[in-house]
């Protein structure tokens, strides 16, 4: 009997190991292919010299193309496009963070306090986030063109040349709003009621309760949004392609859109891909230390849950 029990236990352990192996196999393969291989290949391309479309040694010229007016395989690279798209990316990050975070915290606190309609707001704000960006963008464009702009209910023309950037940022903030509210409210709901009651006994009003208790508890979520947004700032397209298709206007072309569109155009020539690989490497070299610096600053000067 004891032997049979031992065999059964061994079989269970073998099944557990097999289950665990299969469970981690897919993400491991994805990491090796889409991170290790892609980045390794990008680094090689960034330093590869091409002659007549064939690899021909080592070079730094792929980096220099972005700081001088050059044409490689018929594709133009120049610093005006580079710095213009960097400026759009920086501006977009600041606007999305400075607008989305306060609004998200405000609505989350409203729901946390279980004010009238809080449950319905949670559903209404989060439901659009279930859809992908493409159908949301189609609905948004059709709505703003036919109902709000261009002969619609309001004279404000969302898609006029003067308002295209505003329209893009409005769409980005609107579609990401539900996810941030859900995360903030989940964090706020984990605050012990005794802490809130103690603050009320000490005479804390709604503003003090939010500033000294709720915000420090929710700051870890704010920190996550701040750091992930900063780390992906120069690769984020801010839905420019979804809204404007292949040729977005210059004032909405972020660095992420510049990279994506450039790689698409250069896809048939490795020589043309070299400068974009170099640009991606430059972005990584700049963003990684700045992200760690931002994390250190947030840990040192940000709110603490204690």
Describe the protein.
By secondary structure, this protein is mainly α. The protein has two domains: 2-65, no CATH class; 81-301, MetI-like (MetI-like fold, Orthogonal Bundle), CATH 1.10.3720. The protein has helices at 2-46, 61-64, 79-112, 118-126, 133-148, 164-189, 193-201, 206-231, 240-244, 255-265, 270-301, and strands spanning 48-51, 54-58, 70-72, 75-77. The strands form two sheets. It has a two-stranded antiparallel sheet. The chain has a two-stranded antiparallel sheet with strand order 3-4. Strand 3 (70-72) and strand 4 (75-77) form a beta hairpin. The N and C termini lie far apart (55 Å). The model is unreliable at 71-76 (pLDDT under 50).
Short structural summary:
This protein is mainly alpha-helical and 306 residues long.
Keywords:
2 domains, MetI-like fold, globular, mainly alpha, 4 strands, two-stranded antiparallel sheet, 5% strand, 11 helices, 306 residues
């Amino acid at each position: 009997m004891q032997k049979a029990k031992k065999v059964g236990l061994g079989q269970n352990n073998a099944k557990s190991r097999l289950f665990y192996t299969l469970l981690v196999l897919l993400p491991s393969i994805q990491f090796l292919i889409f991170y290790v291989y892609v980045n390794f290949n990008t680094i090689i391309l960034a330093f590869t010299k091409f002659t007549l479309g064939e690899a021909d040694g080592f070079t730094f010229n792929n980096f220099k193309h972005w700081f001088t007016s050059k044409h490689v395989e018929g594709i133009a690279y120049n610093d005006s496009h580079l710095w213009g798209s960097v400026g759009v990316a920086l501006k977009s990050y600041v606007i999305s963070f400075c607008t989305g975070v306060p609004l998200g915290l405000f609505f989350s606190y409203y729901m946390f306090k279980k004010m009238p309609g809080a449950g319905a707001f949670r559903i209404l704000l989060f439901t659009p986030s279930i859809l992908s960006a493409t159908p949301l963008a189609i609905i948004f464009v059709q709505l703003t063109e036919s109902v709000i702009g261009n002969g619609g209910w309001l004279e404000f023309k969302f898609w006029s040349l003067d308002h295209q950037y505003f329209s893009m940022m409005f769409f980005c903030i609107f579609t990401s709003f539900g996810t941030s509210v859900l995360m903030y409210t989940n964090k706020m709901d984990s605050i012990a009621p005794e802490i809130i009651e103690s603050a009320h006994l000490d005479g804390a009003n709604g503003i003090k309760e939010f500033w000294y208790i709720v915000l420090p508890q929710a700051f870890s979520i704010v920190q996550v949004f701040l750091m992930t947004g900063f780390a992906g700032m120069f690769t984020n397209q801010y839905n420019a392609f979804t809204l404007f298709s292949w040729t977005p206007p210059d004032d909405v072309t972020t660095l992420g859109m510049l990279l994506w569109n450039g790689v698409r155009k250069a896809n048939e020539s490795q020589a043309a891909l070299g400068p974009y690989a170099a640009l991606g490497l430059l972005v990584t070299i700049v963003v990684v230390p700045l992200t760690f610096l931002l994390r250190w600053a947030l840990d040192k000067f940000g709110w603490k849950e204690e």
